[in-house]
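Exercise: predict the structure of this protein bound to NDP.
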Amino acid sequence: MSKVIVITGASSGIGEATAKLLAKRGDKLVLGARRETKLQQIVSDIEAAGGTAAYALTDVTDLASVKALAQTALDRFGRIDVWMNNAGFMPASEFIKGKVTDWNRMIDVNLRGVLYGIDAALATMRQQKSGHFINIASVAAHTVSPGGGVYSATKAGVWMISEALRQEEAAAKSNVRVTVVSPGAVATEFVDHVTDEGAKQALANYYAQTAISPKRIATSIAATIDLPADAAINEIVIRPTSQD
Ligand code: NDP
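Solution:
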């Protein structure tokens, strides 16, 4: 059955690939991100392929903006079946570099952005007595390495928030499902946003050899959505087969 699916960070990478795959199956997509030309292009690609999509310019660090994204879904399609908290970035650097601005942005986008998404959609899902949060964490939620301390902290936070949400919704018998997706290296614009040149070069080399297509992540997300509503896949860890 066709679902109304909201995706943050839908203007590139995993968000874009997931939007396009789900639209091809007949789901109705509502896309949020900050770059309007990218969003317009993706909506027109989806419509050209026979799908249905809308977008709202969204900054996930701004609660009002995230609520406006939810309202766009309600105004256009009348419900929110799936909310995918996907916006995120990883400007890796060692602590000695003192990139405090990057640390704060990661906390704002990767962590607060997810909380704002939950706040924007949960009451609607409770009223509907159904819904599904898909929160994009990372393999870095489960491990940490030099330069990745703040990123791993935010993604471990996403994991913890998701598990608490799952437990609360289970106890409330709300029929709201929660899935955390923890990808390994995926070929997106991800590495472009690293501001430390040494870290960026090392990551670019690693990704050139290892990263998989974001379509792989999209396929696994579609599978979690398709599960009958009485069951939920609560976590997916998906890496390139060759990633150590
Ligand atoms: P991309 O850089 O391709 O996509 C990131 C998306 O987030 C863009 O659409 C960007 O859009 C959006 N975004 C960034 N900041 C904001 C903001 N303040 N408000 C709204 N949207 C924002 O990277 P990926 O597709 O790889 O990243 C998607 C998710 O996957 C992230 O959470 C990332 O941490 C996670 N991930 C990625 C991995 C990888 O190897 N690629 C591995 C593990 C996890 P715009 O600039 O238009 O706002």
